[in-house]
């Protein structure tokens, strides 16, 4: 992704294909829910280190490897269940 494309996504804001997550040093449960939603649609862009309003906050450099390592291994099991079903 180019800087120009990133700037365009930040300007257009969140929607069906764009989601911002603060995620300073770890992924929250709702991050996994967003990934599942993208997988059930036509994909999308998940921007970590960005506040809901589009302000870039960044991620803690020492936390980047933790985010990568835990992206799949710590995905909450209930993220893949349909709401209201056990």
Describe the protein's architecture and organization:
With 86 residues, the chain is of the alpha+beta class. The protein has one domain. Helices cover 37% and strands 9% of the residues. It has helices at 3-12, 29-40, 64-73, and strands spanning 18-21, 45-48. It is globular and about 30 Å long. The protein starts with a helix and ends in a 13-residue tail after the last helix.
Q: Mean pLDDT score, rounded?
A: 83
Mass-distribution shape: globular
Number of H/I helices: 3
Major β-sheet annotation = 2 strands, parallel
User: In percent, how much strand structure appears in the residues?
Assistant: 5-15%
Radius of gyration: 14 Å
- Helix-and-strand structural type: alpha+beta
Domains (count): 1
Order of helices and strands, N to C? HEHEH
Low-pLDDT sequence parts:
none
Task: Report strand order across the widest sheet.
Answer: 1-2
Instruction: Note the gap between the termini.
Output: 38 Å
Helix percent reads: 25-40%
Got a strand count?
A: 2
Question: What labels describe this entry?
Answer:
two-stranded parallel ribbon, 86 residues, 2 strands, globular, alpha+beta
What does the secondary structure layout of this molecule look like, with pairings?
Layout (H helix, E strand, L loop, with lengths): L2 H10 L5 E4 L7 H12 L4 E4 L15 H10 L13
Parallel strand pairs: 1-2
């Amino acid at each position: 992704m180019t800087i120009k494309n990133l700037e365009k996504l930040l300007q257009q804001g969140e929607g069906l294909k764009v989601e911002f997550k603060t995620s300073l040093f770890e992924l929250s449960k709702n991050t996994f829910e967003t990934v599942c939603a993208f997988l059930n649609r036509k994909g999308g862009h998940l921007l970590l280190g960005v506040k809901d309003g589009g302000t870039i906050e960044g991620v803690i450099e020492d936390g980047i490897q933790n985010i990568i390592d835990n992206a799949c291994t710590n995905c909450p099991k209930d993220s893949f269940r349909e709401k209201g079903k056990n």
